[in-house]
Amino acid sequence: MSSRLRIPLAVAAVVGTTIAIAAPAQADVQPLDAKDRAATSTAEAKAAPKTAAARTAQAAWAAGTRAYLVITTPGDTTAVRSAVTANGGTVFAAYDAIGVVVAHSTSASFAATLRGVAGVQQVGATRTSDVPADAYNPALPANPAQSTTTLTESNRWDMTQIKADQAWAVTTGSAAVKVGVLDTGVDDQHQDIAPNFDAADSVSCAYGKADARAGAWRDVDTHGTHVAGTIAAAKNGKGVIGVAPGVKIASVRIAEPTSTLFFAENTVCGFMWAGDHGFKVTNNSYYTDPWQFNCPDNIDQAAIIEGVRRAQAYAESKGSLQVAAAGNSNYDLANKTTDSESPNDSTPVTRTITNACIDIPTELPGVVTVSAQASGGAKASYSNFGNGVIDIAAPGGDGSTGVYSTLPGGKYGSKSGTSMASPHVTGVAALIASANPGFTPADIRNALATQATDKACPSDSRCTGTTTKNGFFGEGQVDALKAVGGTTPPPTGPYFENLTDVTIADNATVESPITVSGVTGNAPATLKVGVDIKHTYRGDLVVSLVAPDGTVYLLEDFSNSDSTDNVAKTYTVDASAEPANGTWKLRVQDVASQDTGRIDAWNLTF
Fold first, then answer.
1. How far apart are CA 433 and CA 171, in angstroms?
2. Hey, CA dihedral for 459, 463, 466, 472, is it positive or negative?
3. Chain segment 333-388, per-residue pLDDT in tens
4. β-strand partners of 597
5. In this predicted model, what pLDDT tens digit does every residue of 264-285 receive, in sequence order?
6. Which side of the chain, N or C, has fewer Cβ within a 10 Å radius?
7. Angstrom distance (rounded) from CA 149 to CA 404
8. What is the pTM of this model?
9. Which residues, in sequence order, are CB contacts of 600 under 8 Å at separation 6+?
């Protein structure tokens, strides 16, 4: 399975339905397949009037057209652009500030010839397949019909794990902070994204040239919309809440339609746009296709490294921090030996590589590299790792427990992957930038590292390093609360907890006890009941508190259509009629088949 989209498993859900999918990473709930997308795009293209320039560009495409990065001295690229034209190529896009030209040619000798031209430093083919004809007259992505939701916001396991729910008491983020989602696009009309969406700074960079037409930024898959929701879904009472629900989201679609591949010229365009449009942070949950690793001893890949490196450095020089997913191959990035997934736009071959070969953009200087954690904090089974490579860790989901977020068309669902971990860190970075408007990218990087919660290596010989910094978790698990200067409020009264796991089987009722002693009089009218239940479909659950005398206080009877994972909430109960001392029980009823879980922990605060 390709890990270009950093998701090894998608567990998608629509209201009233849970669907588990073990399929290629782009699969999701009710997707438009390649044929449907092509039909929709063709219809929209036929409906749109064509300018003379568009007709000329369309006619310029020919079978065998390949794309190249031509690297020269930053500044005026006029001479090199002329050389491209004089040697059998066309200039598709040019980025003078970094000395990078995107060239197209059908000539097999184009790159070799141009490498001999004065002023040309490097030339590299960016793909092993032809540039699609769509590049010359791109069709707008489909605009999905929107569904409404009856789901209300609740604390999800991933948000409580990084204390984002507590950080919101300090700041939900500033609307002055713009976050760029470099991905498959974003559904800007989704009910949980529309309040925070920045259309003016959104664009398509597919094929390597900015396309600022309205809607060009929309999702050609589901991946980018899911990522965007994790970062900044609005705190509006609907569906889900993002890590930084007060910041602005801009979509930079760098995935090409049908293939959903992210080629180097697209990434260059995306980073340049981020720098020029004031993005404080960008999220990058992909690797730059077609090479999983780019090696400097390969003449084409060396140019890719240099072109994307320059673009990233440009964005950072303009105040933009890049956060990126580490990848989903359970691969030690600090000890590279082979690559068997490249090139993924034609026929992959197995090749021997070394640590000089890098995953772009995640291993570029200055980029924050994020590994994924399962619910509870362990390294996710699929997550790449590597001492000195991983900077920080965040929830990405694993197995049956995924990250729940937005999907195109007003829908919601779960996915797992380092793609899902990275936006948690991006969201925290946006909170840091909100609380500290003068922070530079380096300042935000340092704050992420300093405030992370240390995570020691487990009993796994692959994890090397120290408790404070190691190959599985880097500086540790991201902590949204500490990152914005907050502290966890201590319990205000006597506190009792039970940390013993209790399995919740299908169609079963289970109880977990807590014995209270030493508390005078009755329980308070504001008894706090903290609940942490791990379950793959909480719509199955009825949760109650049982007093020592057997009185039952219903905490929550979840809607049968609530497909969210887990229950991580604190309830307030008027238990003033009950003596405080005695054995209290948390009762959990599973009233449907298929999904199971456990009471992970619960507590009482008097």
1. 11
2. negative
3. 999 999 999 999 999 999 999 999 999 999 999 999 999 999 999 999 999 999 99
4. 504, 535
5. 999 999 999 999 999 999 999 9
6. N
7. 14
8. 0.77
9. 376, 501, 532, 533, 534
